[in-house]
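TICKET #2291
ISSUE: user wants both folds in one file
ATTACHMENT 1:
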Amino acid sequence: MSVLDIKKLAAYRAKSFRLTKLHRVKTRGQALHFVDHRGYVFFWPIKGIDFPSLWTAVAGDRPVSDAHDDPGHITWGWKDKALDQKIWYYAKILRRKSTIISLGIAPYFYALSDNFGSPGEDYILAYEEGRLTRAAKQVYEALLKEGALNTIDLRRSANLGIARDSEFNRALEILQADFKILPVGIADAGSWHYSFIYEIVTRHYPTLPEQARKIGESEASQKLLELYFNSVGAAQQNDIQRLLGWKTDLTARAIRKLISDGKISKLNIPGKNEEFLALAQLGG
């Protein structure tokens, strides 16, 4: 079995993650190109997960700064201004963390979600099967009835005013991760005068279900996995499942297809009894 060249991998990620000053993202237009090229990225870097983020593409490989005037926080403004402009798909998706997805790739994610029929009915089945909490069901029903609402009004309309913050926030994360709701704007509301406005996904992107309906499970998983390897270069199977949240059999089938198509290979790290999956060009 060939070996994984660690130096080649580091150089590959420095370019794909935009870590070097030469490749840094400097404008909103470049940010959109970065997202479209990668297919999907995190907004912030996530500890323990090797994956591109808009923050590191702008600020480099360093922790997110607490200083409000840090140059890297220009990403915050880009993200907020883009919420209602439909230039990309933004929500808490991967690991239930802030994720930006290219509009051309969003249907592949949606095809793997638990949304099969009518948006007004799918959530009921999800709740009955235990995939939605009661709070998530109430939040979704409030948006179905009232339309887009800021976080303050949404909590009130969902009858969660006295619920714990963690219960309400978890409901928002569950619904976003399953492509049922997403933030579509910013409202001057709450004590911080800053509140996300949430809407039903199929109202904001009405053509998404039809686009996804044409994509089968195998095609969707292979596309997303290929984009994953084009970003990270090399990984182990558990890395893939940690990020994408796929079951073992789905992950294994997608891996086998990419191997058979010659897009990735099995490689070892010298001196370690560990098997990696990697782009063939990263072999030593």
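ATTACHMENT 2:
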Amino acid sequence: MNCGRGPAPATMVRCRQCSASVAAPAGARAVQCAQCCCVTRVSGAGRQLSVMRPIPNFGGGRGKKRAVLVGIKYTKTRACELRGPINDVKCMRYLLTERFGFAICPVDSFQQGPILDDEINQAIVRPLVHGAKLHAIVDACHSATVLDLPYRCTFSKQYGCLRWMDERPLNGACKGTSGGKAVLISGSSNGKTQMSVLPEPNATIGALTHSFIKALECEPRTTYGHLLTSMRTTMRAGAGNCSLQGPVGCSIRKVANFSGVEEPQMSSACKFDINCEPFYM
């Protein structure tokens, strides 16, 4: 209780990414570092998730498939404003609607501060029952744990191939599904985010997004392992000219690595044979 003594003092929190000190206002559950943009939970400030409301009925879709596409430009942030995320969304929309029969859900809600990975896991991963499938493609910095999944598949320098890593929390908390399938395709980086303002604001696309779409255009019927390998080959070729199909891809000329992602990686609610399991959304 505050008896007329003014606002409570801010709490200093150490960033989990770069260890910088960040001031957390009283009552804040998470803070974002001004240096590396990483979001860190404030100790003891957990939040109860609200009861999930019925999913709205978005018309125009074929079957039961739905997709949410997000492109963040960091508008009006001077040197940090990005010029490719909107094209990422447009190209992904074309791929999903034309090739995979998805309906696009026009939802935009950022009203109550940063969304933490364990909240995302509890909200959309844990409820997945048998037969339900979730794929998340995230082309952004600090994206490897966005779904807080227990297993990660990445290229091992020691073995020279893709290998699974067990990242289940030591406290025994369950981060899997309720019988469904959850897969995240994101990127690993050296932590050096490459943000730049390019002279062609409407003619760029993110490197991870470009490699994902290109891999599926070249081989629609592929396995998870082959998909990651194809994406890695394209990304290692470096930024360059865009060669995507469709009305949107034809207008994009450059591939830019805004997020500093070096290689693709995959996280999952459970381990599986990536070289035999077919990729299907």
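RESOLUTION: both attachments delivered.
EXTRA DETAIL ON ATTACHMENT 2: The CA atoms of residues 96 and 102 lie 5 Å apart.
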